[in-house]
Every structure is written in C-alpha cells, then in structure tokens.
Amino acid sequence: MHPILSRPSRLAAYVAVWVPLGAALASLLALQRVLSWPHAAAFAMPLAIAFGFLCLSAYYAVQGVPFTGRDMPRAVVTAIAAAFLSSAVWLLLARIWLAVVESIVARRDGVETFRSAAPTLFWFGFLLYLLAVAASVLRLTFESARDAERRTLELQVLAREAELRALRAQLDPHFLFNSLQSISALTTADPPAARRMCLLLADFLRDTLTLGSQSRIPLRSELLLAQRFLEIEQVRFGERLRVDIEPEQAGDIAVPPLILQPLVENAVRHGIAHVLDGGVVRVRVAAGSARLIVVVENPVDPDRPRTRGTGLGLTNVRERLRSTFGATEARLDVTENGDVFRARLDLPLTEHAVS
Fold first, then answer.
1. 0.70 exceeded by the pTM?
2. What DSSP designation does 258 have?
3. What is the pLDDT of residues 194-204, one digit of tens each?
4. Residue 302's domain is classified under what CATH number?
5. Are 23 and 31 in contact (CB under 8 A)?
C-alpha cells in the first residue's frame, strides 16, 4: 500500500495540499478567460484532487526504476513517459468533468471550452506529476538512508553483544584458573578444606551460569555473588580474610553480571594474600539520581613483591564497561594510597526494578 494511503491523517493532509493547487489552476483558467471565476473553481478544484490520486503512481514508478547509477537515464525517460500518460488521462477526466459542470450550468460550448483549456491542463498536470516524482525520489532516498542507518545500528548492537560474550567467555576460564590454583594448594595442606572449597565453588558456578546469561541483574544479586566468592576464599585464608558487604542497601539497580567478581578476586589475590595479618574486603554502594558508585577496598602491603600477572581481570572489567555503556559513560578507577587499595566503579543509572 502507498504510504499516504496507509493512514487517514496522511491522506487528509495530502488532499489538503491539492486544494491550493486546484485554486491555482482555477485562477489560470479564469485569467485566460476560458471559464468564469465560479465555473473555474467548480471545474478545477475537484479535478485537481482527482489528479492528486493519479500522482500517487509516481511513487511506484520511482520504486520500479530507481534514480541511481546506471538506471538514471531510464528512470528519467520513465518519469517523463509517466507524466505524459498521467496528463493524458487527466485530460480525459477533465473532458468528462467539464461536460458534467456545463450540464449543471446549462452551457453548450463545452468542446470549444475544452480546446481552450487543454494546453493549460496538460502542462499543469505534466509539471505537477514531475514534482510528485521528485517528492517520491526524496522520500525513497530518505527511507533508504534511514534503513541503512538502522542496519548499521543493528550491526553495531550485534558486534557489541558478540564482544560482551567474548569477554564473559574470557572471564570464566580466568576465574576458574585462579580457583583451581587455590584448591590445588589446599589438597596437601588441608584436604577437608579443599573439598569444602570445591563444593562452594560448584554452588557459585551454578549461580553464575544462571545470572551470567542475562544482560543485567540486580545489584543485590551481584553483591551476593561477590559474597559467595569471598566465602570460597575464606576457606583458604580463614580468619585472615574478613568481609564487609551490605547487599540490603543496593536495591534493585541493574548492573552487568559478574562486574564485581574480578574486583573482589583482585582484592584477595593481590591484597589479602600479601598481608600477614589479613584484613577486611569492604564493598560500599552509593546511588544518586543519575550515577551508581561501587567501591571495593582492601588492605595491601606496600612492600609486597609485584607479581607479573596478565592483568586480565581489571582489563576485562574496563572493556565490558566500554562495550556496555560506551567510552565515556562508565569507568573503573583504581588507586593505592599507602596500605589501602581502592577500586571505584562509576556507572550510569539506566535501569531499575529488575526482577
């Protein structure tokens, strides 16, 4: 169906456009003394609206032969031929309508009147049809540009989703590698603790499989996952590792899943593990009207040996923030001030009430 005919409001607006064109045609005929002003108006106004519906065919003519590339000459010839044909049909309609009008006003010079009006009618219709062709070309060009933009956005979304899936797939082996190293260290030193750690790890992975497949999860659930992870590490570190997390304050703010797990893992692996007396891993949340701040703090030994790890955890978090929120909307800042290491997540508040 023609776009103009798809909605009554569009059709009404289109008909309204042809009313002043009918008035212009009536003025031409009256000024040429072909018809009197009242007769010209009665003749031209309905005829112009009828020709408006004929001009709807320009949309299909442009669709059939687009005005691009090698098809341009053929499209121009097609448009001119369609304009001639439409004007000829319009002349036929004009002859019939003029006979009707003159029968109403009791005139008998219809043939002579039609001969006088025919050139004006033909070229007026010819030019209007070419204008309809130009309008159709503009509309189709706009629609093509909009479709191309939509396809580009869809491809960008698909690329971003693929990148996020790759980052998640990268995160899981990284976490498992570090966890298995911890279990391996316990198998000889404390076998019951190693077994308990395996069971906790299995429960933790089951939860991550459920929540990690979603694009957003409640921050409360994300904090509980972080707490479950730290409970696993407490098997290995005992009283050296203490946890201070307040998930009840988080509400249902939506965040990317497993965004905190690399941060708490980093707090244990590069912080608590190198402090003789251990310490507290603290997670604090501050939600404003537009931003969400999550801070992970842990003690560090300023004189600890600098391990040469891959740095995959923090890099993964930054890349996920960039892919999810864009280059500037979210960030991860890490600072070390004396014996305190702080990781600060700054996210935009975009979603709430996640079930």
1. no
2. T
3. 888 888 888 88
4. 3.30.565.10
5. no
